[in-house]
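Lecture notes, continued. The same structure-token format from the folding unit now serves as the input rather than the output. Read the line below as a description of shape only.
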């Protein structure tokens, strides 16, 4: 649940915060509200379907190459985003809902919708792609673990949507130039890393000169995604903080006007509390929560076995408790070939390498009576351990003796190429 909560924040923040800004920036005359809302709904639905379709093809086929896709989509997003910022500064502090909609109003409406489409397709693709982690391979959507992961993802998404809404509402309580400056900073944080990655792609294809500085920036961006998200979190909190400052100046009024001033101050105080509270939640989730969620469990120790000639023997009594047990055979060149055993029932055992064809030698661990892949988190059906397919342990042959399980050294040696650990 925590892992998917963090995933929702990671992919939701760069999607929903800019999207909230763009939706709030749509100008229209009062009588055009419904028409603009309908146009916006159609545009957003089409863009979301496009992003979801791209994610589906990426998950289920080999038709989508992400670098190639980004090569074409990212420049469009950059052009639209910079166009939106340019028109926004040109628009300035004008009334979005003026009855007389000028060329500035129409330009801002068009560029807002175009930018929204580009943001949804670029970042919505990643957001939709990340939902694949909700129901893991071999799991059912109705399993408790799947439902818990869905709850974590949904809650993270809800918080991000609230953050976007709160940011937009708070910016209405600050001067227009301050709002534009913060909006510009938000978009630069969102599209800046994509710009640098695009430059690297163009340089690799010979369209632009190679740059050592750009290469180092690319490496930094790849390792500093959390820093960029934290910067985005801080920026979304700034309007709420500034709003309380602009509303704190004493005003000498009385009667109904005094009540309006008091209500305004209460509203600003609420946005300050929401901004600070949201910042604490997001920062904690993206640092401590991320570290906890992505912690990789340690493998249990190797248990004793005996080797005589070509036979590797494991005590049946040792593995008769129904829990996961890990063993190893050391080949002639010193490679440690790990294998696991778990008793399924009174007469059957699940035996396989501590590795699979998908995740390699990452290994498995037991948690709450479930055998889980250490790399991808897929939970094994214990009854299928010993059979090939998916993320199941690679099956190995064994024989059941009176007091031991017998494995074969030549077969284990044949799987040595999967494992890297050597015993010197």
């Amino acid at each position: 649940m925590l892992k998917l909560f963090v995933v929702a924040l990671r992919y939701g923040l760069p999607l929903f915060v800019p999207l909230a800004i763009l939706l709030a920036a749509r100008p229209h005359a009062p009588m055009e509200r419904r028409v603009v809302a309908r146009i916006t709904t159609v545009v957003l639905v089409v863009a979301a379907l496009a992003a979801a379709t791209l994610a589906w093809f990426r998950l289920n086929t080999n038709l989508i190459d992400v670098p190639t896709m980004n090569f074409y989509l990212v420049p469009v997003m950059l052009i639209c985003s910079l166009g939106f910022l340019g028109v926004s500064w040109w628009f300035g502090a004008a009334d979005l809902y003026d009855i007389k909609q000028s060329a500035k109003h129409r330009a801002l409406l068009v560029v807002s919708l175009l930018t929204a489409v580009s943001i949804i397709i670029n970042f919505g693709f990643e957001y939709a792609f990340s939902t694949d982690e909700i129901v893991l391979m071999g799991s059912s959507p109705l399993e408790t673990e799947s439902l818990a992961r869905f709850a974590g993802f949904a809650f993270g998404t809800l918080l991000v949507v609230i953050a976007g809404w709160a940011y937009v509402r708070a910016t209405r309580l600050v001067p227009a130039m301050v709002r534009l400056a913060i909006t510009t900073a938000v978009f630069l944080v969102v599209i800046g890393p994509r710009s640098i990655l695009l430059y690297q792609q163009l340089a690799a294809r010979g369209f632009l000169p190679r740059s050592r500085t750009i290469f180092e920036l690319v490496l930094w961006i790849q390792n500093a995604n959390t820093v960029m998200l934290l910067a985005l979190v801080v920026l979304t909190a700034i309007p709420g903080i500034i709003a309380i400052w602009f509303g704190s100046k004493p005003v000498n009024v009385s009667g109904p006007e005094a009540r309006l001033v008091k209500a305004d101050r209460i509203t600003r105080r609420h946005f300050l509390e929401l901004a600070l509270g949201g910042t604490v939640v997001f920062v904690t989730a993206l640092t401590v929560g991320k570290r906890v969620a992505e912690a990789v469990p340690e493998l249990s120790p190797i248990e004793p076995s005996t080797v005589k000639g070509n036979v590797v023997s494991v005590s049946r009594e040792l593995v008769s408790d129904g829990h996961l047990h890990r063993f190893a055979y050391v080949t002639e060149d010193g490679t440690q070939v790990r294998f696991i055993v778990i008793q399924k029932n009174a007469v059957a055992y699940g035996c396989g390498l501590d590795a699979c064809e998908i995740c390699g030698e990452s290994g498995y661990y037991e948690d709450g009576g479930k055998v889980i892949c250490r790399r991808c988190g897929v939970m094994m059906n214990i009854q299928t351990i010993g059979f090939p397919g998916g993320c199941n342990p690679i099956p190995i042959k064994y024989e059941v003796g009176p007091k031991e399980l017998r494995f074969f050294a030549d077969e284990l040696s044949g799987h040595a190429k999967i494992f890297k650990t050597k015993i010197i």
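Point for the exam: The beta strands are 306-308, 311-315, 325-330, 336-343, 349-353, 364-367, 370-373, 379-380, 399-400, 404-408.
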